[in-house]
Structure formats: C-alpha cells, structure tokens
Amino acid sequence: MSTPDDKLTLDISKREGTINLGAGPSSLPTSVLLEAAQGILDFSSTGMGLTELSHRSGTFKKVIESAEEDLRKLLDIPENYAVLFMQGGGTEQFSGTALNLLASHAIAHPDYVQQHNGQGPALDYAVSGSWSAKALKESKRLGGNAKAVFDSRKLEGSDGKFGIIPPTSTWQLSGVDGSGKVASKDELPAMLYYCDNETVDGVEYTPAFPIDQLPKEYAQNVPIVADCSSNILSRKIDIAAHSIVFFGAQKNVGPAGVTIVIVKKDLIARDPDEGVSNGGPRIPTTLAYKHHADANSLYNTPPMFAIYASGLVFADLLKSKGGVVGASQRADMKSRAVYDVISKSQGVFAATVKDPASRSRMNICFRILARDGKTPNNELEERFIKRCREKGIEQVKGHRSVGGIRTSLYNAVSPEQTLVLVDVMKAFAKEVQDERRA
Ligand SMILES: Cc1ncc(COP(=O)(O)O)c(C=O)c1O
C-alpha cells in the first residue's frame, strides 16, 4: 500500500508571515488549526478522522459536551440557559429568533392574535447597522409586526449612514408611552432585537447595549435578543439579562458552519406547533429550538468539524489566553492603538463612525482623505492596501457598501500583529503628509 509520507509535511511559513485582518471568515489561532488538522486525519488515535465518525458516537459526544462546558465557563452561562449548536448561519437566526419567540408568545397569550384583528405582537428592532437592518427586513418579510425602535440612518447629522446610536430616551419602544412608562404589559413586544457589533459598518455598543437604561418594566418583561456574531468572546456579556444570545462562528469562534444559540430554557416553546391554532407561526423543524434542546444539538447531523474546531478555540482561550477578560483587555488595547493613529493623522485618515463612543473594537472602518481633508480618495486607499500587502497584511478593503478600509482585529489577531498595522498606518500618514507639504 502506498503511504502518503511525501504529503505529511505542512508548509505554514507563508502563514507565519501573514497578518489576516479579514472581517470574516477570519483568522484562527495557528495552534488550534494544527491540532484540528491532526484531528481531521486521526482523531484521538481512533484511526479515523473526526468528520468520519458517527455524530452519535461516544467520541463525538465528548467533543460537543466539552465545547459546551468550556463555552459555559467562558461566558458564565447560567444553568437555566440552553446552548444549541445549530446551522444556517447568523442569517438563519434572523428568522429563528422571531419565529421561536412568536411561538412562545402565542402559547403564553392564546387570545392575543384574535383580540388584535389577526395581528401578532410587536417585534422591536434597534437598527444600528446593516445586519440589524437585515434582521428587521426578514422579520417583516415573514409577516411579523416588526418595527425599528430607532434607525441610525434616519438621525439628524447621520447623512443617511450608520454611525450614531441615539439615547434610549428617544427610542420608540412598543408598549411604552411618551413618559417612558409601560402602559399595558399585554402590549409589550415579543422581543427587542439588537446587533452588538455591526461588522459591516464598524458600530458597536460600548461598553454594552444599554439594557440598564430601558424602562425597568420593559427590560424585565420583553425578551432581549442579541446578535453577537462578530464580538462574542471579546468582552463580558450579561447572559442573564438576555433571552437569546446568538452568534455565527466565523469570527472569534471557529470555522463557518456552526451557529451557537444561547437561549433561556423557559422561553423555548414546549411544543413548537402548539401556538399555531392561536395565530402563532409554524416553525420549520430544524429551526425550532425545542428539537435541538431536547436532542442536545444532535437532532440531525451537526456541523461536526466546525463544532470540534470551535471547541479547540474555547479551550485555548480558557486555558492559555486569560479567558474573556484577557481577550477583552487585548481588544481594548489593539483598537485604541489603531484609533489613536487615525485621530493623530492630521486629516489623512478619518473614522467612518462619527460618534467615538460607538466605534467598534473589532472592525475599524476608516477612509483615506484627499488634500481637502473631506473627500475619500480611492487612489490613496488602493495605495494603502498595497502598503499593507507589502508588510504581509491582508484583507483590509472595506465592505462594498461602506467603502474605504476595514481592519478587523478579532481575537486571533495578536497585539504584535496590530503593532505592525499601526506602523504601516503611521508611515503611510507621514508619506501622504510629506507629499502634501512638498
Ligand atoms: C453581525 C453579523 N450578523 C449576522 C451575520 C450573518 O452571518 P452568516 O453569514 O453566517 O449568515 C454576519 C456575517 O458576517 C454578521 O457579521
């Protein structure tokens, strides 16, 4: 039998010299990928690769259980929350969150739809960027009674762009009257949805989404749902203040393919079809949280490799990198260093997010300006991308809807790598300033 010995050496020298600042899928720790490479060929000396095993085997059961255990430790997830490893990406949770919470609402309030002329309960959305805007759009498409409690693009001074998060006192919360009081508990929405970090636009709630500033009765009675796809594990989050926290893997967690949903157990509809006769939605089988919770995420074949590799990332963060506290300190330090160069660039760089308090620590979006200090200059931006590439920095082009530059400083990007970016930015700013003086 021929042996594959000649293929057993892995050349990762190019990787070592590359700084991948992509917005997602993005870089993962090399040590994790090397371990995963072993596991995909021969997992734990079974003679079989991880993705070649039955997902119902004891071996895989241990993998998924230990991933959940480590995630619970990292995020301090209370016992009364289920952790579901699902598929379909963040996008599928735009419908998953709305449908599951509407189903629970229909069971808890059997007469609601009938008493409201066939209309379901309100669904509130905080629209601070492209992803929350998409979630709202999907919710409406599904027939939900969904509305924006604010839309950053419509605020004064926004120029139709995302970048400002208005004070909570101005939010149009359903069931709350002008004086900030809940008029009737029955009229409260079935959820308040937000996206903690808007990957495309570089907008993040800092230090956290302001649950503590919402009217108390609203915050206590409305299920709060967070899309944390692009900043989970980069800072602490109060899971107990939420009903659902979900995230796709492909930023701080692992390879694309698994979407993790942390959901308060008493909000999982006990029978996903029970509310249908009350006007609740019919949820596609694989989207109903109940099925995944009952089967410990093995209702159908799960994305085994993505779960395995994510588990390795969790263990690495927990055991070698100081957990979420360590990641949070590094994220603060890295992003501060880059924003600092932007603010001291004498008009060469300009952050696209106007309000410094809403600037993302994960996705730093900026433009490079022409001599007038106002107009973005595509030629300079292309030149900057080239300068980055000369130093091994890849994937810094901004999203097509925003333009400019986006440097994503996820957990796997080290402080040392960030300093290389900082040096390139400083040198570029000087180069442009010198040209302008000449
Ligand atoms: C914050 C956020 N939410 C949702 C999504 C959609 O995720 P997916 O592509 O996995 O459907 C993304 C994707 O980048 C994202 O960044």
UniProtKB/TrEMBL annotation:
The keyword Protein biosynthesis does not apply. SUPFAM superfamilies: PLP-dependent transferases (SSF53383). One of its GO terms (cellular component) is cytoplasm. One of its GO terms (biological process) is L-serine biosynthetic process. Gene3D superfamilies: Aspartate Aminotransferase, domain 1, Type I PLP-dependent aspartate aminotransferase-like (Major domain). It is an enzyme of class 2 (transferase). The keyword Amino-acid biosynthesis applies. Its EC number is 2.6.1.52. It catalyses: 4-(phosphooxy)-L-threonine + 2-oxoglutarate = (R)-3-hydroxy-2-oxo-4-phosphooxybutanoate + L-glutamate; O-phospho-L-serine + 2-oxoglutarate = 3-phosphooxypyruvate + L-glutamate. Its cofactor is pyridoxal 5'-phosphate. Residues 20-103, 189-417 form the Aminotransferase class V domain. Pathway: Amino-acid biosynthesis; L-serine biosynthesis; L-serine from 3-phospho-D-glycerate: step 2/3. Belongs to the class-V pyridoxal-phosphate-dependent aminotransferase family. SerC subfamily. This is phosphoserine transaminase.
